[in-house]
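Readers of this paper often ask what the protein records in our data store actually look like. Nothing more is needed to write down the fold, since each code stands for a local backbone conformation. Below, we set out a record of this kind in full and without editing:
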Amino acid sequence: MPKLVFDIETSALPVENFDESQQEYLFRDCQKIADETARATRRGEILQQFNLWPFTAQVVCIGMLNADTARGQALFIADDYEDDALETGPVEFVPCVDELDLLGSFWEVARKYEHIVTFNGRGFDVPFIYLRSALLNVPISRKDWLGYRFQTEPHCDLAEQLTFYNVSGREGAGRRFNLDFYCKAFGIESPKSHGITGRDINTLLGEGRFKEIAEYCVRDVQATVLLYQMWKERLAGIK
């Protein structure tokens, strides 16, 4: 069965999008800090976390590859949107007018696949796109990706497989590392080797460097495909 490997990039929504009571809730921790400098530091930390929450951030890019062919698409939001897809090797870069367009296009692709592969998709990518789709009333074509955790179908989450479902907690032999660390350990080119990380997405978006976001996302997915192949050959089936 064909498997879809995907990854998302998110960007924080402006603070001005939230009313007074929402802002008070989001920054409540800050009000408990008397020191002004420390309070400002904590506010900055909370703003950084905005990218992680589907109620304070939006999906700005989704990279997708077929696990067998390594061909696929990168859907990305572009303010200078033009209805022209750019094909670069096996990957087609598809600009989207907004998040609504992006998510709708993603679910159209997703309906064609029986199985998915992610890195930390069960903990982040899947619940994030489910909730963003619900908020924007975008029909979700696959609602079974969070299913039974201790199985690899229809969702193989490599972050769970490489920790054997967190068998030894934070400090044991099966502790979790990030994708960059796993890639270097297995001899795979890290998606961060080009100087861009997930922390740069807000800045890149603000500077209108939309294609660079998509290229970074695709590198994440390509690395995940290679890591999946190694897991499948060397570790799959361990119980």
